[in-house]
Amino acid sequence: MSLPTKLHHFCLQFQLPMAAYAALLALARSLQDILDLEQYIDPLHKPKIISLHEKVDFIVTSLEKYSDKHHGKLDCVGNGIRKAAFEAQDFMDSCYYSLSTTTDDDDDGSSSSEANGDEVNLDRGLTMASERIDFIWEETMKMNNSTDTSQDLPSEYYSYPVDRSSTAQNLVVGFDDDLKAIEERLYEDSAKLRIIPIVGMGGMGKTTLARRAYEDSILSQYFDKCAWITVSQEYQRREILSGLLKSLKNEQSADKSEAELAILAYQNLIGRQYLIVVDDIWSTKAWDDLKMIFPDDGNGSRILLTSRILEVAANAGSSDTLVHQMSFLNEDLSWKLLQERVFRQESCPLHLVEVGKKIAKNCGGLPLTIVVVAGLLLSSADVMKEQVWENISENISSREPTIALQCSKILCFSYDRLPLRLKPCFLYFAAFSEDSEIDVSKLIRLWVADGFLKPKDPFKRLEDVGEHYLEDLVKRNLVLAREKGPDGKLKTVGIHDMLREICITKAEEEGFLHQVSTKINKFRTEFIENPYRRFKIHSIKRCDELNIEDLSVRSILFGESGLSLPKLYVRSRHVCILDAPRVLSDNISHLYSTFVNLRYFAFFLDFRHSSHPELPVSISKHPNLETIIVRAMKSEVVFSVLLEIPYEILKMRKLRHLICHNRFRFSTYPFYIGIVHESGLQTIETVIDFVFTEEITRILVNLKKLKVEYDMENRHWKWDHFNLYNLFDLRNLEDLQISMFLPRLFSMTWNHAFPMGLKKLSLDGVPFPWDNMTIIGSLPNLQVLEMINIELTRPFEWRTEEGEFLQLKYFHSSLNHVRKWETEKDHFPCLESLILDYVIWIDKIPSGLEEIDSLQYIELKNCIQSLVDSAEQIQKNQHENGNDGFRVRVIYE
Fold it and tell me: 20 to 30 A Cα–Cα from 364, which one of 493, 656, 667, 675?
């Protein structure tokens, strides 16, 4: 029996109403969409729609409460509710389609006779939907009246306590000897290129061990170059090479052939003492595809390789290569790891020791199962209660013949015990590729578009709710925190392969998401027996035409790798999510016009041969569109040709995020746009030469993040042309990034105030005078400040003042034109990280910075030696005073 089959077997034991719950959330949103077309609805229908909406909301809340008490009891009922909810949603979406297309006709001046017909359709749709909702209501009442509590668990299981915030992912408990052995081989006195393989089954901690050794190597600065690549089962050599170059900080890989990428990678490594981690490699062919890019210059370079397969690891090295075989943790180390994960630095209470050791033993010595169970224990509001531990112990008692089966059982049990609100969010990880670094912003935007997020506070942003949900999953050790931004917030996350298998199995089993893979020229999804709401399209090699015939589909998500798909056809008119940011297709950028209920649209534009690319005005006719993401083909032409976006897009009431991964400009700036309402836009990236009229700032009052560029080369514009003084009125703006391309001897300097709510400010090429820093220092909430390439015409001395930069945690600057920097401890009271680039005039770190208690990291890139010496002296002093966590990193490129 294969592992996926075993996972399916175990997951079937824990049938939950997740799919029914997700279907009800979607139904509630469809009803709200109808209500949003208020001006086109007969007033007699509105009370009935509101009543149905309130009834569905009540059912959703009831399911959440019931699920917290009765896990595994909603098998048939849950499927019945799901089917009824899908049917009701289909009726409402059909009504919405009829009404919304009629509104377009009316706007064109057509007769209203068709609208009367649509009212008849709405009346019939409401009747049919009402029947389904009444059925769901009755089933919900039956569940609420049930007195069976045989499987009840304490309610505190389902609300994660806020104060348990530690999410340390790289805690190497039980691996001290392994880490010592690996690092001895990394730093051994041997000039020959050494390959160090780490082998063990999934969940044994291979990647955790390799990451810890890798991070220690970076901090020790022993190697000239360090890079990390992940291979996985289904790999593309081009993607791996691009990832390697990105990890090596080489961004010049756009539009190069695979052979050119291999040569570029080789050139980046030759002559350098390097450390490369090749993580999660599954085949000897994969190694054969990569090994030629790693030069052996006899300078002590190392390759750290992880694999589940001994043959692959042995093949990578020479005949004398020693394979480091991971071992299962013994009972004592298992118990130690569980204690560390649950109690951190505290001791386990005596009354929990016996049951705790029993739980640790039942985890079979596999670190993954131990940390997942620890997350399950921590999800209790009272982790000290013995009954909580006894319930966990009983449910994971070892009855399986192998460690793999026992691990599968525990992982399924952990999923089973998730709060219902987190289940669809967790299963969404099935839509991402194995070992992928998942962008947090994208993930949360997809959750928003799918309607999974329910704020308890109506004034709370859905994106903030999504961050809270994700943090909850991380704290439960079901999701891995990968990269954090300078403000401490998660930027990327990941998921362990075995947990991803759980997601895929459950998603298929409950009709939540279907994986599509094919190697044939033309592929149609009509052969799929069961209806699915979501399709993940990946690995469709040599496919020229993809037809998605399933009328029930609402979300179509493509893989993260680049893909050429000449033709894509979708029969359903009710698609809400079309995520194809790397799909080169002849018709995908026009396909959206048939999806009137579209909420999330990410697509790829190839305008290398277009002198005037633009988005059509018709895109603004999609009333529910929340996210627009445009990615263009990278080439030299792209940077000379700008995408034009019609200003009418600002009239879209529900649009939240407008993102162009290259640059765009609004097609025109009329004196008066004629928008009488505030825009819901929260994100705009990356707009060029944006003019901040008073009307624009009134419209964009909800803007949270703005990335803007100004190209003033070969132009005679002045500041007043852009009305930059109106920036101050964007009172909700938190993240502002400004880049400027200025002509030589540009004489004007920046003297405009910034919005007081800013938390992150990035200035690149902006002529901001250092003696005017009080403007920035007085921002009360500023946590992250980046000032690079500050082009000025005279030198400055920068003296900070008390009462400034009160919240600043991260400061990154090239200190252009600063000849002297004087500061005190109290001037940066919260500073944690200082990053300086190409500083040549400042000869030492100001002494006041050394006294800042919160400062833990200094990075110097291509700075003068005297500045480096002063930083290293600070590190020495900090270590002598017991602050072993303080680090200085020096980079020369």
Answer: 493
Other Cβ atoms closer than 10 A to 313: 25
List, in order, residues 6 or more apart from 628 with CB less than 8 Å away: 601, 602, 619, 649, 655, 657, 658, 659
List the one residue out of 879, 881, 840, 835 whose CA is nearest residue 858: 835
pLDDT band at 628 (very low <50, low <70, confident <90, very high): very high
The answer to whether the Cα torsion of 435, 420, 599, 703 is positive or negative is negative
Q: By C-alpha distance, which of 665, 658, 654 is closest to 709?
A: 665
Task: Calculate the dihedral angle through the C-alpha atoms of 848, 849, 852, 856, rounding to the nearest 10 degrees.
Answer: -160
Residue 375 vs residues 329, 369, 371, 580: alpha-carbon distances, Å: 18, 10, 6, 34
Determine the Cα–Cα distance for residues 599 and 575; give it in Å rounded to an integer.
8
- SS3 labels along 157-190: HHCCCCCCCCCCCCCCCCCHHHHHHHHHHHCCCC
Q: Hey, what's the torsion of the CAs at 110, 111, 113, 119, to 10 degrees?
A: 50
Chain centre distance of CA 195: 32
Span 381-401, average pLDDT: 79
- Give residues with Cβ within 8 angstroms of 383, minimum separation 6: 164, 342, 377
C-beta of residue 450 within 8 angstroms of C-beta of residue 50: no
DSSP secondary structure code for residue 367 in this structure:
H
Residue 754 Cα to chain centre, angstroms? 28
How, if at all, do strands 480-484 and 490-494 pair? antiparallel
CA distances for 352 relative to 26, 360, 385, 389, 584, angstroms: 43, 12, 8, 8, 57
How many other C-beta atoms are found inside a 10 Å radius of the C-beta of residue 287?
A: 21
With beta carbons less than 8 A apart as the criterion, state whether 28 and 93 touch: no
What pLDDT is stored for residue 11 in this prediction? 41
Closest CA to 23 of 87, 96, 82: 82
Residue 197 pLDDT grade (very low, low, confident, very high; cuts 50, 70, 90): very high
Q: How confident is the model at residue 8 (pLDDT cuts 50, 70, 90)?
A: very low
**Could you tell me where the DSSP H helices lie in 603-680?**
none
Residue 256 has pLDDT above 60, yes or no: yes
What pLDDT was estimated at residue 883? 86
Cα separation, 893 vs 891, whole angstroms: 7
Q: How far apart are CA 96 and CA 461, in angstroms?
A: 25
Note whether 62 and 140 are within 8 A (CB): yes
Mean pLDDT over 94-104 rounds to 75
The predicted structure's pLDDT at residue 856: 92
> Which residues have C-beta within 8 Å of that of residue 279, sequence separation ≥ 6?
206, 207, 210, 228, 229, 230, 231, 305, 306, 435
Q: What is the DSSP letter of 321?
A: P
**423 in Cβ contact with 476 (< 8 Å):** no
Length of the chain: 893
Question: Mean of the per-residue pLDDT values for the chain?
Answer: 82
| Spatial distance between the Cα atoms of 704 and 441, rounded to a whole number of angstroms | 13
CA distance 414 to 396: 10
Bridge partners (DSSP) of residue 833 are 810, 857
Q: pLDDT (tens digit, 9 = 90+) per residue, 676-707?
A: 578 889 999 999 988 888 888 888 999 999 99
Cite the DSSP H helix spans in 379-476: 386-395, 403-416, 423-427, 440-450, 462-475
d(CA 514, CA 230): 25
In this prediction, residue 530 has a pLDDT band, given cuts at 50, 70 and 90, of low
Q: What is the pLDDT of residue 777?
A: 94
Between CA 885 and CA 879 the distance in angstroms is 8
Secondary structure letter of residue 614 according to DSSP: B
Q: Are 622 and 593 in contact (CB under 8 A)?
A: no
